[in-house]
Every structure is written in C-alpha cells, then in structure tokens.
Amino acid sequence: MFLAAAALFLAAAALFQAAEALPHTRLERLPLTTLAQAYGPGKFGLSFELYPPKTEGGMTALFRHLDQLVEFQPSFITCTYGAGGSTQDRTLDVVSGVRQKYAVPVATHLTCVGRTATRLKEYLERAKSLDIQNVVALRGDPPRGEVEFRTVEGGFSYANELVQFIRREFADLGIAVAGYPETHQEAPSPDVDLENLKRKVDAGADVVITQLFYNNQDFFDFSQRCQQAGIQVPIVPGLLPVTNLAQIQRIASLCGAKLPAQFQADLQKYADDDKGQFEVGVEFAIRQTSELVEAGVDGIHYYVLNKSEAAQRVLHAVQLPR
User: Fold this and answer.
1) Rounded percentage of the chain residues whose pLDDT exceeds 70
2) Is 49 a known active-site residue?
3) pTM, rounded to two decimals
C-alpha cells in the first residue's frame, strides 16, 4: 500500500515538474473567476476542454499546445478524468498546472461514479486548495466493462444531486453541467432529458455546456426548448473540430452525435489522406463556428483532444465577439 502511494506521489510530482519546466507565457496573475462571470453582456465565453495525459511526455506536449491556445485568451479551461475517477489526481495536476502557468481560470470535471459524498467533498476541498474555483458536474459514465450506472452507498445517483451538494457545501464554486442537443442516449425522450437538465440548473448550475454536435439547427432547437422550459443560464455549444474520420465516427457512436451525410462523404473522399481529412474537418468547424457566433451564442466550448492546430485554424478564421 505504501509503495503504491509513493509511486503515485512520484508520478504526480514528475508531471507537475514537467509543467513547471516550461516557460511561463503570462506573468500577470488573474483574480479568481467563476463560470458565472465568464458570460453576460459584453462577454463571450471561450473555453477549451482537455484530458489528463498518461505520461510525463504527454504532459509536456499538452503544455506546448496550450502555449498556442492561451493566446486566444480563453475565459476558462477544463479537464476531464477517467471512468470511475481513475485519473482524478492527474486531472488536478493538469488544472492546477494550467492555473499556475497561465493564470487562466480553470474547472475540474467531477462525477458521481464510485464516490461517496465524503470523498467528493475531500476532492473539492483539495481542488480549492489548488486555486481551482470551478467544477463541471456530471453523473458520469459507467466504468469500463459495466453497462449501467450504479450508485454507491453514501453517493449520488444523478447530476442534479451532485450540483445541489456542491452548491450547499461550496457555495462560491462555479458549476457547469452538460446538455444534449440530440438527447442523452439513456433518456427515454427529449422532454424527459430536458426535465433532467432543468433540475440540474434549478439545483444551482451557472452554465450549460452541450455535448458535441454537427448540425447547428439541433443546437438552435435545443436552446429554444431550454428557454421555453424556463432555463435562464447560458447554453454554450460544445464543438469538436474533426481531424480524422475514423476517430470522429468512433466518438460520435459513443455519445450519440449524428454526422451529416455530406460531411461524412467529404471526409471519405480523403480516406487515405490525413491532411485532406484535417482540412475538410477544419473548414466545416469554421463554418459551424461562424454560424453560431452570428446567431449570438453566449460562448463556445472546444473539445480540443489535447491538440491546438485545429482550434487555432478555426479561431484565426472567425472573429469572436470579444
């Protein structure tokens, strides 16, 4: 047990040192900022989502890409963690490293999977001690090998319960929750899915960030339904610029996102040409982003898969209202 704990400590230390070894690109320290402050009149919330690298080399590469992304002055940066909380420590390494290196507001993901209220509270206390002021609160997917979510004794069954707990125990934290323009795969209907979202917002969420999608009309319809349901917080589209056909087909199948037939056909023309697929995907992302910005969305959240090239191309091509 002691050796395992020591190994985890050394691995975390190595990852943190890898981040610290990189040159700092922003010297000014920003005040603590919650998600509620990222949106509003005269504000456009730009954000990026990362995942925790498994190795020191992966951490170094991630911060090299972040050096490019922070030039666009994101409102905040988030980081996921593995199923069942398997990478929670590395998630905190990433977000605390981003916070210290760039002075950018950050958010850690947090799920109900395999965690009691006591353990969730301990995690959030640790996050706050690391200058992390925001949480993306999710129910979470079942761990690998399991087909359905299981509530642990002393834990929570739904994301709205987690949001309520965070708001009660850590009133000053910013909270984001997930929305599904194409309906959550486990929801019996779009109406039930919307009712679930309303419960999360009513429990204290500051913003809704959507699952990825590729038909903007799905987002516009979803936003209108949210407004009609009395959801008043910002509804922020989550976008994943496509860089590889096989990859996005796999991701879309896991989350239930639909790929437009013409878009797939355009990508398929370059089935043996990685650069061609990248160009098609980036051009689509530019058009998708432009249409959303012109429609007056509150912000955009990019799933960047720890890379910077695609998001850079999109953001250089689109004039954001900032």
Assistant:
1) 87
2) yes
3) 0.89
